[in-house]
Amino acid sequence: MKKSVRIFWRIFLGGFLAFVLLVLLCAYGAFGEMPSLKELENPSLLQTSEVYASEGTLMGKYYLERGNRSNVEYKNISKHLVDALVATEDERFYSHSGIDYKRTISAAASLGKRGGASTITQQLAKALLEHQRKKSKAFTGIQKIKEWIIAIKLERNFTKEEIIALYLNAVPYGDNIYGIRNATRTFFQKEPDRVNIEEAALIIGLLKGNNIYNPRRNPKAALDRRNVVLNQMAKNAKISDAEAAKLKARPIKINYLKMDENMGYAPYFREVLREELKEILKDTKNADGEPYDVYDDGLKIYTTINPRMQEYAEEAVASHLPTMQKILNSTSYIKNGSIWKDHQNILDAAMKNSDRWANLAADGLSDKEIKANFLQKVSMKIFAWNAKREKDTVMTPMDSIKYHKQMMQSSFMVMDPVTGEVKAWVGGIGFKTYKYDHVNLKTKRQIGSIVKPLLYAQGIEERGMTPETELERSAVFFEGSGWVPSAKACKGGVMSMANALAWSDNCASAHVMQQVGAAQFSDFLSRINIPTKVEAHPSNALGACDLSLFEMMWGYSIFAGRGFSTKPYFITRIEDRNGNLIKRFDYSVNRKEAISEITAYKMTRMMQGTVDVGTAKGLRGRLGAVEMGGKTGTTNDNTDAWFMGYIPQLEAGTWVGCDDRFIHLAKNDARGYGGFAARPIWEYFFKKVYADKTLGIDKSSVFVKPENFDNELFSADILSTVSELPPPGAEGEDVGAGTSSDYDNTEYIGPESKKIPEEKPEEKKDTAKAVMPAKKDEVLNNNSTPIGAAVEDKKKKKGLLNKI
Asked: By the number of CB atoms within 10 A of the CB, which of 71, 87, 289, 615 ranks highest?
């Protein structure tokens, strides 16, 4: 044998052995972990977690962008999508075993000019290895070998139909949309089995370049690419040439609506729920012994939210806040800008914490240049009271900061006072612009006079006081604390406890605190389960402490809840992606007896005085309710306005104010009192609820009278002690109910919640039948489980589709 021939064979055999060694090294993970056979047989797709309302309405989803997908089976994928995919991406898909050697040789010989060599199976394998991708040419060769190995494994363990379903569920379609269901629903508002031929061609056309051929951004390029796909379908006899010509002549028609965090019901609530879930699930392990991940484990979270009530609650806020905003805007120090005279530090902090500042700093601008930029007018979107809750305008970024900080905020919460089920949750005026939630436990404001029913309840429960107990209307001096309230604030005389509560008299309330004791009242708030530790100050008789709306709803549950303190709760159960129960929640564990049933009943009767003749005069009559209790609250300088109220079946509370406490209505403007600034929101909501007969909220319902109530020393009609006229110096004096023109908004804005387009539910199968077998002759030899049964943690596990 010639020397040259020997050298050739040595090189050939050496190269072949080196290639075999390289393949073996790749297969055994020397260049990055490879999916195991078990993982290939049991793929676990990143899936969104879904939140459901009390009657099954999909409220929203939790996901990271790559995890925002929903599994769809092959049977629920349109034949047009499959035909377009195979005709365009892999004409010999049904005849090869993962690698199309003919295309590979052709692509290599033409240096790629005749098209790529990757099959659908290889493209799926490539997606699985995307996290390992590097830019070096050497690694690209290794990556290709790994793709071949995975492609062969896929072909050996899955049917062709299963591979197509896995592929379409896995790949991106632009705009951070992953999965075929999300793609068809985003672009057409259709399920994957309902798209027509030209829609299927458009979707498959995106796979070549989902940004280049995005019909929303590049309609001309998308049209051309769609027509290429139609030509391929005709070439492969999926459609006729005549049909292709007819379809190519049609313009692109899309109905684009992308799911995001702003879409769905109760966006503020869902954000609070997300944080609550992290705490609940941190000690709950999935099948792999890892904590459940709310973003991609495909959990089903069932809540207590009632969609109709949620809509009415959002409407209620939108019906009144525009009017309050107009009142604030007309205040002199808001109109002339002097409100900011001593608060430049607030503006500077907001400026430096903004995205604009961060982006300009990243571009290399100095602080001085950035500040100058904030004084230049630019086009922008700002919050506005309309259906979209935004509008286009031109203003300086600094003026935008002032504008948005001067918007009045509100919170509103509704719950069942007996079970604690939260029915509606409105955390602010517009989630898209303002993410800060004003309902939850951590958001505290000064509560003002809404604390008084709790103080009076303790006086009745522990100090033998009755609604007829006469209270002096004079300031009280507390050793170490001084006068409560200021001595000059009181007019003298006496009034009954019932009258003092109805008219929210601060002077009389100070005498109740004197009887109860500041330390004892602080302890009482703890005993009725209010979580925040309230320091023992006599001024708490006037609501000088800071608590959240959530806590006040919890505290007020003792009245309509017949003496039981009931923690608001909003999750009923959590299931995994296969419907297996992870955790169930029982309201009974949240109930604790706090006061006697008799005291609770006395308080409900007393608090009707507020809504009949007191600071919320006429409310019960306008709504036509047989029985109702309520309390207004206003803090110093009109900084915070509150209204808390309840009927036998529902309890609701609302707060109105600005995030920065120095921004408020003029301190002598009666329109800043709780009876005007907050009460209309509550009233609007209950008017809608009473009118909606499907909710079962009955105007004629009454509070349950304790069996032994008549045996009490006090047996008279409590309300008979409430006078029709306000005493001098009462909170809310001259406020009244106002007129409809004072607070009715002429433009109907509607709820912020937007219904998520209905999804066609997957056909439920018996678990045994849901198994995705590899090959028929392998079914008896493996322990296959349903797709999605193995729950993977995205950070630590590297299962089949968790690598996408």
From this structure: 615
My answer on whether omega of the bond before 706 falls inside 30° of 0, hence cis, is no
- 603 by Cβ neighbours in 10 Å (0-12 / 13-18 / 19+) ranks as buried
How far apart are the C-alpha atoms of 748 and 312, rounded to whole Å? 12
Rounded distance between C-alpha atoms, residue 91 and residue 88, angstroms: 7
Joined tokens for residue 743: 């607070």
Q: Where do we find the tokens 């309405």?
A: 57
Q: State pTM to two decimals.
A: 0.77
Which of 309, 274, 311 lies closest to 571 in space, CA to CA? 274
Contacts of 645-649 with C-beta under 8 Å, sequence gap 24+, read 645/611, 645/616, 645/619, 645/682, 646/417, 646/556, 646/559, 646/560, 646/604, 647/560, 647/686, 647/697, 647/701, 648/560, 648/701, 648/702, 648/703, 648/704, 649/416, 649/696, 649/697, 649/698, 649/701
Please state the rounded mean pLDDT for residues 257-281.
Answer: 87
How far apart (Å, rounded) are the C-alpha atoms in residues 17 and 201? 44
- Nearest alpha-carbon partner for 262 in 432, 27, 12: 432
pLDDT per residue as tens digits for the range 743-758? 444 578 989 988 776 5
* Percent of the chain as helix, strand, coil, to the nearest 5: 45, 10, 45
pLDDT digits (tens, 9 = 90+) for 425-478: 999 999 999 999 999 999 999 999 999 999 999 999 999 999 999 999 999 999
- Residue 445: both structure tokens together: 């404001």
Contact between 264 and 62 (Cβ < 8 Å): no
pLDDT interval class at 217 (50, 70, 90) = confident
- Higher-confidence residue: 794 or 759? 759
Cα maximum dimension of the chain: 127
* Contact of 727 with 495, CB cutoff 8 Å: yes
Residue 683 has pLDDT above 80, yes or no: yes
**CA nearest to 60, candidates 279, 300, 410:** 300
Backbone φ and ψ of 556, nearest 5°? -70, -15
Contact 186, 178 (CB under 8 A): no
Residue 326's Cβ-side half-sphere holds a number of Cα atoms within 13 Å equal to 11
Place of tokens 């007969």: 693
Token representation of residue 159: 């049917």
Structure-block tokens of residue 350: 């907001």
- What pLDDT does 141 receive? 56
The continuous run of DSSP H or E covering 423 comes out as strand 422-426
Are 59 and 303 in contact, with CB atoms under 8 Å apart? yes
* C-alpha span between 757 and 328 (Å, rounded): 38
Evaluate if residue 652 carries a pLDDT over 50.
Answer: yes
If one counts every other C-beta atom within 10 angstroms of the C-beta of residue 624, the result is 11
- Pairwise CA distance, residues 368 & 513, whole Å: 55
